[in-house]
Write a structure and sequence with these properties.
18 strands; seven-stranded mixed beta sheet; 494 residues; alpha/beta
Amino acid sequence: MRRDVVVIGSGIGGSAAAALLAKAGLRTLLVEKNPRIGGSCGWYDKRGFRVDYGTHLFTRGERGPLGVALRRLGARAEFLRVDDLAEVRGPGLKLIVPAQAWRMPQFCVEAVRQLRIPARELPKIIRLFYDILSMPRHEAEEWDGRTVEEFIFRYTEHPRLFGLFGFLLGLYFILPPWEVSAGESILAFQGMVRDNRLSYVRGGSGAIPRAFVGALERYGGEVRVRAGARAIEPLSSGGFRVELKDGSEVRARAVVSTSSLADLLSLTGAARFPVEYAARARAIRKSYVAVQAKVGLRKKRERSGCIVGGWSRDPAFDPMNVTREDYRAQFASLDRGEVPQVVPLYCPIPSNFDPALAPPGGQLLTACAVAPCTDVRRPEDTRAHARNDRAYIDALLAAMQALMPGCLDDAEFVDTMGTEALAAWIGKAGGPAVSTGQTPDQVGARRPSVRTPLSGLYVCGDSAGGRGIGTELAAASAMECVSAVCADLSRLAV
């Protein structure tokens, strides 16, 4: 079998890249190791619920890179909104994040009151928000090489404000604020506020890769599932031989991988790359990941589109006296493979956006809590090559019960997923949420290129190229990768 391009992996990055390559007139084959496309935007159906494998909201909706890629393909996914986008919960805290701009002043007043922010800090808050939202792009990019923590400390060192702004600017990158690039955060926050399209998609998150794959097939491309890549071999005559796990092989002028750079070394052979490139690929800082719980409720309990917050395992913990050292202790626990003292909860409620994702009258909760990647040993591990996430899952379920009392009591089902299971589905070494974490040395001009040192071998998705949050990063990277592939193949054909 011969093709112009083989794309490995059918998540947002891979499915978008494959469709755009097919539209450009290249004979394109998309291969996926799972029985269903989508990667972390994959799904399964259970008792009338359509359930995401991942935990998703889309910060810019159709106005961001996802919308740009869909429009380029003449494809469509409908992004939906709700009036109360999110609700922040915790001890003494209940804040509703509104969709409408006219409701934001009241939200800000309530946030200051409930967080007990001293009056002397208010001018600093106003200045910080003004500077973020008015900062020109070139100035934001000058902050690429510094952290969110450094940026916040220009304005305030108040612990609760540090926690608030660290949360607002760092939540979607799944890394602590002293590791996340300030430039990347500022640009992402600007886009989210400017577009004001925090949303979910009709039909579940899988509707987006389904739309991309539909466009791929419409433009003459093909998709094969249950067809994982086993090896990528450069050919002396040019191009590549891709060996699939079913024993078949494909020859192509170019290959696009959507896995991590470390995985690409394994597939292709590290010795084929320059020593410096291989060393950097192995040293890349990845993000944390999360354990998950999918809960099908018989009756609707929650109004907002998402519940976010934190629950302390110690009843004596006082969030109003939190210190910066407490925040650092949280992530130090994760790095040791331990459950942190305060369990953060992120729980989008897809059926509040699209009621068809649950049976009539029902509700779907998709919750997660941060956890270390599978290459971090847990203290309670007893198997040599396994990671026991039971303690993290128990903590997640306890946080759900604390912040959404009774939510598990009348559940039709409670499906939990540990980090090993998620890593196996997505297929990335260690199972990170973001393969190349958005740290100061891994964003913007310092981010790995979509081109690799091997001519004709490319990377897209969350491991190289692009800017943005999660699925939007993957879509931006896909468009960048397609431009590179088309330019290079066109030049070689001349």
